[in-house]
Write a structure and sequence with these properties.
heterotrimer; A alpha/beta (216); B alpha/beta (248); C alpha/beta (490); B: 248 residues; alpha/beta; four-stranded parallel sheet; C: 490 residues; Rossmann fold; 2 domains; six-stranded parallel sheet; four-stranded mixed sheet
Chain lengths: 216, 248, 490
C-alpha cells in the first residue's frame, strides 16, 4: 500500500463514525468549490479609495496620487529624488512603456537581480480593506521585481482597487482562466520583530513600499 | 421584591467548609439580606472538580451525582465560588453524559445554579449591601467565574455599594493567579511564579486589600503575598467584604 | 504502524523518548523532565527577561478591536475548519488533483522518517547542494535539518528567528517568534562568532547584518523548503503567510521548491482562506494582514523570468490521523497563530523550550501527547491552570482546556499517573461520598491545620506538597463550616 493509500485509508477509518461517504458528499464538495461562498466578514462600510490609502499608510507604505498614467514617471522621479534614492530601476515592461524621457530615471525591463535597488511594478488589483497590492506572476510581471530591491514602487490605477480579498478572487475568476504560478499579496515593506519583539522594517524584502494611485 | 421568598440552597464548597467558614456565613447573611430563605443541605461535601480536573472521571461522576441529588429540591443553588458553580453549570452535563437518565435533572440543576455575586446582583437584586470598609480594594477576576459564569460587572457593582470602599483596578485583573487546583501542588514553582505577577499587579495599585470570589485563588494569592513578605495587603472573599465580615 | 519510527526527540529539547504508538514499544526514561526544564527556565535570568518583554497578547487585543464582528467570524472560521476535517480525504484528493494538473508533484508522508526520505530523494534527484528554508514547523517535527546535513547538504534557515536559533544550535521556542527567548546581546554574540563581523548591539543594525548575509544565501540557494499555512483544494495552491519576505524568496529564487505541511491544513476555497486570514494574522501579531500572503500554484510557466523549475508538496500524516474521528479532532482545526501560548500564564513564565517538543503552550500540550504518545508527555496536559484564556482567544475555537482535561482522563484510564496520586484521589472521593466520615476527617484536618499555622496562622511548610515550595498556606480557621453551622442552629 502506498503512503497515500494508507493515509487515505486511515482518514476513511476515522470517518466511519460519521455518515457514510456517498455521492452526496462528493457533490457537496464540488458544489462548495463551484459556489465558493463568501464567509462571515466585517461590515466594511467605508469608501474604497480613502480606505485603501489609509490602510497603505497603516502598513507603513507611502502613498502618492496622480491624475493620469502620463504623470506617473515624473511623480516617481520626484519621489526617488526626495528620498535620495538612485534614479535607476528594474521595472515591469508595462512600466518601461511609459514616457521616462526627461525624468532622469533610467528604467530596465528585465528580471530583477540581488543588487537592484529600486523596483517598479504595476498591480493586478489592490485591496482596500488592508491596503494590499495583488500581484500576479507572468513573463511580463515577474515576482522578484517587487521582492529583491530595497524600494518597491507600485502603480495602482484607482479603478483596480477592490473592497476585499473576496472581491479580488471574484474578479480574478472572471478575468483569468486560472491562477498564475504566484499570486503575491503585498502589504507594505518587509518586516520582522524576531529580535526582542522590536519591529524592524526591511527584513529580507523591500525597506519601503511606495504606492502611486492613478485617478484615471 | 414580592413577599414570596426565594428558596436558595447554599453550596458551601469543600474548601470554604475546611478553610474559611466565614465565607459561608457571609453568603448566608447576604442572601438573607436579599430576602432569600437559605437552606444548607447537610450531606454536601464537594462538587467533584478536583477529581474531574485530575482525570479521575469516575470519582468526579459519583460526587457530581451526589450534588445533583442533594440540591434537587432547591429552587436555586448558590455557590460562593466561580469555579465550583462553573463546574456544575458548565461541566456536569459533559461529565454525566454516561448517565442519560440523569440528564434532565442535571440540566435543571445547571440552569438554577449561580455564582453568589451574580445571583445577588441579577436574581435576588440585593438592595442594601451590609458591608463597610475603610480603604482601597482591587478586584481579581477568577478564571472560572469570569470565563464560565460571566462574573465581571456583578461583584464590582456590589462592591461599589460598600460604604467607604474605593475600588482601584489592577492592570490585568483577568490574568490567572496561577492556582489551577492541583496544578498549584503539582507544579508549585511555576504556579508561584504566575502568582508573583498577580502580586506585583496588586502591589502596584497600592490597595489595602485584594478582593475575589474564589477561595482557591485567595489561598494562592494570600500565600504568595505572605511568602513575599507582604503582611500589609489583606485578602478577602467578596462575600466577606460585602457582608461586612472582614474581621472573621 | 508507527512502531518502526526512528527516535524522534533528542538533544536539549527532546523528551528523550521513542515515538511509540500509544500502545506499543516501551518508553525510554526521559533524560530531562518538563519540571526540570521549567525549573531551569524559571531560574534563567535571560529567559525571564525575554519573557517579561514578550507581549503579543496586547497586539492581538488591538488587532481584533477593528473587527466589529470578531466572534461571528470566529464561529465561521471554526466551521470552515470543521468542514475541511469532516471530508478530509476528499478535500485532499481535490487538492492533489488540481495541484498535479498545475505541475506540482504531490507526495504523501506517513511518518516523520518519510518526510526526510522524500526531501533527500528530491535533493539528490535535482542535484542540489545548498538548501534555504523558510519556517516549517513540520520539518522541526522530523528533524529535517539534521537529516539533510547528515547527507551532506548545506541547510540555511532564513526566517530571522529561525536563523538565530540555528546559529545557536537550538530549537524554536515559539511557533511564530522562534528566538523570543534570546536577547539582542545573545544575537550580537552569535553574529560575531558566525559572521566574523564587528559587534553590533542595535537591533536595526543586527537585522541589517542578517539581511546582508541571508541575501547571499537566497541568491545561491538551489532548493527552497517552506512550510505551508494552507493548501487550497479549489486551485491546488499553497498559501504562505509571512512578514519578512523570506517565504517569497524561498519560493521564488531557488530552482526547486519543496513545501511540507500537515494533512489537516487543507481549505476548500480561496474565500475560505480569506475568511481565516482575517483571524490568523490578528490573532498572531495583531496585524490586519501579514506583509506577504503568497499563493504558489505549480512551477515556473513558459516565459516566466523567475520561479522554481520544480514544485513539490509533501502532505504529512505523522500522527494526525490518530486524532481524526476522536474526541481530540478539534485540535486539528489549529491554524498555528500562537495566540494560545501568547496568552498562557504558564508559557509566559517558562517559555517554549520547557515543553520539550515542537509545539509549546496549550496547543502543544494537546498535540504533543497525541503525536509522540501520551506516556512520553505525561506532564504537558497537567501543566496548565485551565484558566481558559487560550480557549477564549483561539481563533478557531479549539476547547483547549477541555482537550487537556480529556488527556488527563486518558492518563488515568491507562494507569499513567503516579500511584500515590491515584490512591489519593480514590481515597478522597471515597470519603467525600460519605458525609459522616467526611465531617470527621475535615474536623481533624481543620484542627491540625490550625495548630500547624501557629500564632501567625500561616503554614510555612507542608511536607511533600509543591504548594509551599513557593508560597505559604493560610491556615484553616480551626472549625469547619459544618460544625459552626450546626452550633449556630442549636
Amino acid at each position: 500500500m502506498s503512503a497515500r493509500e494508507s493515509i487515505v485509508a486511515r482518514i476513511r477509518a476515522a470517518r466511519a463514525a460519521l455518515p457514510a461517504m456517498d455521492e452526496t458528499e462528493r457533490a457537496a464538495i464540488e458544489g462548495r468549490i463551484a459556489l465558493h461562498p463568501i464567509g462571515t466578514r466585517p461590515a466594511m462600510d467605508w469608501q474604497l479609495v480613502p480606505r485603501f490609502r489609509e490602510q497603505c499608510v497603516r502598513m507603513s507604505s507611502s502613498v502618492d496620487d496622480v491624475a493620469s498614467m502620463a504623470e506617473v514617471p515624473r511623480a516617481i522621479a520626484r519621489f526617488l529624488a526626495d528620498m535620495k534614492l538612485p534614479m535607476r530601476a528594474v521595472v515591469w515592461p508595462e512600466i518601461a512603456q511609459l514616457d521616462w524621457n526627461g525624468t532622469g530615471v533610467t528604467v530596465e525591463a528585465r528580471a530583477a537581480r540581488g543588487d537592484d535597488l529600486v523596483g517598479i511594478t504595476g498591480t493586478y488589483l489592490a485591496v482596500a480593506e488592508t491596503g494590499t497590492l495583488m500581484l500576479l506572476s507572468s513573463p511580463s510581471t515577474p515576482a522578484a521585481t517587487s521582492l529583491l530591491p530595497e524600494t518597491h514602487i507600485a502603480v495602482v490605477p484607482q479603478g483596480r482597487i477592490v473592497k476585499a480579498m473576496e472581491e479580488a478572487w471574484a474578479l480574478t475568476r472572471s478575468e483569468r482562466v486560472e491562477l498564475p504560478r504566484a499570486v503575491n499579496f503585498v502589504s507594505g515593506p518587509s518586516r520582522t520583530a524576531d529580535i526582542e519583539g522590536q519591529l524592524q522594517l526591511g527584513a529580507h524584502g523591500p525597506y519601503r513600499v511606495h504606492v502611486v494611485v492613478v485617478a484615471e | 421584591m414580592s413577599d414570596q421568598k426565594l428558596r436558595v440552597g447554599l453550596f458551601v464548597t469543600c474548601l470554604v467548609d475546611l478553610m474559611r467558614p466565614s465565607i459561608g456565613f457571609s453568603a448566608i447573611r447576604l442572601l438573607e439580606a436579599a430576602g432569600c430563605e437559605v437552606t444548607v443541605p447537610e450531606s454536601q461535601t464537594c462538587c467533584g472538580q478536583p477529581a474531574y480536573n485530575s482525570g479521575d472521571r469516575m470519582a468526579a461522576q459519583s460526587l457530581a451525582r451526589k450534588v445533583v441529588a442533594e440540591f434537587r429540591d432547591c429552587a436555586y443553588v448558590v455557590v460562593p465560588s466561580g469555579s465550583c458553580s462553573g463546574m456544575i453549570r458548565a461541566h456536569y452535563a459533559e461529565l454525566l453524559a454516561e448517565f442519560p437518565s440523569d440528564r434532565a435533572e442535571v440540566e435543571r440543576l445547571a440552569a438554577r445554579t449561580y455564582e453568589l455575586t451574580d445571583f445577588l446582583a441579577n436574581v435576588a437584586k440585593l438592595q442594601r449591601v451590609p458591608g463597610k470598609f475603610t480603604g482601597t480594594c482591587t478586584y481579581h477576576d477568577s478564571c472560572s467565574g469570569l470565563r464560565e459564569m460571566g462574573v465581571k460587572a456583578q461583584p464590582r457593582a456590589l462592591l461599589g455599594q460598600v460604604q467607604g470602599l474605593a475600588l482601584k483596578e489592577m492592570a490585568t485583573p483577568e490574568y490567572c493567579c496561577g492556582f489551577g487546583g492541583t496544578f498549584a501542588v503539582k507544579y508549585g514553582e511555576i504556579s508561584a511564579r504566575i502568582a508573583d505577577r498577580k502580586c506585583e499587579d496588586i502591589a502596584s495599585t497600592g490597595a489595602d486589600a485584594v478582593v475575589l470570589g474564589d477561595l482557591g485563588c485567595m489561598l494562592n494569592i494570600e500565600g504568595r503575598l505572605k511568602r513575599r513578605g507582604d503582611t500589609k495587603t489583606k485578602v478577602y472573599h467578596v462575600a466577606e467584604m460585602l457582608a461586612g465580615m472582614t474581621d472573621e | 504502524m508507527y512502531g518502526s519510527l526512528p527516535r524522534l526527540c533528542r538533544g536539549r529539547v527532546g523528551v528523550g523518548a521513542s515515538l511509540a504508538s500509544t500502545d506499543s514499544q516501551p518508553m525510554n526514561a526521559p533524560a530531562e523532565t518538563f519540571k526540570s526544564r521549567a525549573h531551569d527556565k524559571l531560574n534563567d535570568a535571560k529567559v525571564q527577561r525575554a519573557m517579561r518583554n514578550f507581549n503579543l497578547a496586547g497586539a492581538r487585543a488591538r488587532g481584533i478591536a477593528d473587527l466589529d464582528n470578531f466572534e461571528d467570524i470566529r464561529t465561521a472560521a471554526a466551521a470552515i475548519r470543521d468542514r475541511s476535517l469532516a471530508s478530509l480525504d476528499l478535500w485532499l484528493a481535490r487538492f492533489e488533483q488540481e495541484a498535479t494538473r498545475r505541475g506540482t508533484k504531490v507526495h504523501w508522508a506517513e511518518t516523520h522518517a518519510d518526510i526526510n526520505r522524500i526531501v533527500i530523494e528530491i535533493a539528490r534527484a535535482t542535484r542540489v547542494k545548498k538548501i534555504i528554508k523558510s519556517k516549517s514547523m513540520v520539518s522541526e517535527e522530523s528533524h529535517l535539518n539534521d537529516a539533510l546535513e547528515a547527507e551532506g547538504f548545506q541547510v540555511v534557515e532564513t526566517d530571522l528567528g529561525e536563523y538565530i536559533v540555528q546559529l545557536a544550535g537550538e530549537k524554536p521556542s515559539h511557533i511564530i517568534a522562534p528566538a523570543i527567548h534570546k536577547s539582542r546581546d545573545d544575537v550580537a554574540d552569535l553574529f560575531v562568532q558566525h559572521h566574523k563581523t564587528p559587534r553590533k548591539t542595535d537591533i536595526g543594525e543586527l537585522t541589517m547584518e542578517a539581511r546582508k548575509f541571508l541575501r547571499e544565501h537566497f541568491l545561491s540557494g538551489e532548493m527552497g523548503i517552506s512550510g505551508g499555512n494552507f493548501l487550497i483544494a479549489e486551485t491546488g495552491s499553497l498559501m504562505l503567510v509571512t512578514n519578512e519576505g523570506n517565504g517569497r524568496m524561498t519560493t521564488t529564487l531557488p530552482r526547486v521548491h519543496v513545501a511540507i505541511t500537515g494533512i489537516e491544513k487543507v481549505l476548500p476555497t480561496l474565500e475560505d482562506a480569506s475568511c481565516i486570514l482575517r483571524l490568523l494574522t490578528r490573532s498572531a501579531t495583531g496585524q490586519s494582514i501579514s506583509n506577504y500572503v503568497t499563493l504558489n500554484t505549480g512551477p515556473k510557466q513558459p516565459g516566466d523570468l523567475d520561479g522554481p523549475e520544480e514544485m513539490h508538496v509533501i502532505i504529512v500524516d505523522a500522527g494526525r490521523t490518530r486524532l481524526l474521528g476522536t474526541d481530540m479532532q478539534e485540535a486539528l482545526r489549529c491554524i498555528r497563530c500562537g495566540a494560545c501560548m501568547n496568552h498562557c500564564p504558564v508559557y509566559q513564565n517558562i517559555g517554549g523550550h520547557a515543553y520539550g517538543w515542537v509545539y509549546p503552550g496549550p496547543i502543544g500540550s494537546v498535540l504533543t501527547p497525541n503525536y509522540i504518545g501520551l506516556e512520553n508527555a505525561i506532564d504537558l496536559p497537567n501543566a496548565a491552570t485551565l484558566c481558559n484564556q487560550c480557549g477564549v482567544v483561539c481563533p478557531v475555537k479549539i476547547p483547549l482546556p477541555d482537550l487537556m482535561r480529556k488527556l488527563r482522563e486518558k492518563q488515568v484510564d491507562r494507569g499513567l499517573r503516579p500511584w500515590q496520586e491515584r490512591l489519593g484521589l480514590k481515597l478522597w472521593a471515597w470519603v467525600a461520598k460519605r458525609p459522616g466520615i467526611y465531617a470527621l476527617a475535615t474536623r481533624i484536618a481543620a484542627r491540625l491545620g490550625r495548630s500547624m499555622g501557629g500564632a501567625d496562622r500561616v503554614i510555612h511548610r507542608l511536607p511533600g506538597n509543591g504548594w509551599t515550595e513557593g508560597r505559604d498556606m493560610p491556615a484553616p480557621a480551626g472549625k469547619t463550616f459544618r460544625e459552626l453551622y450546626a452550633e449556630r442552629k442549636r
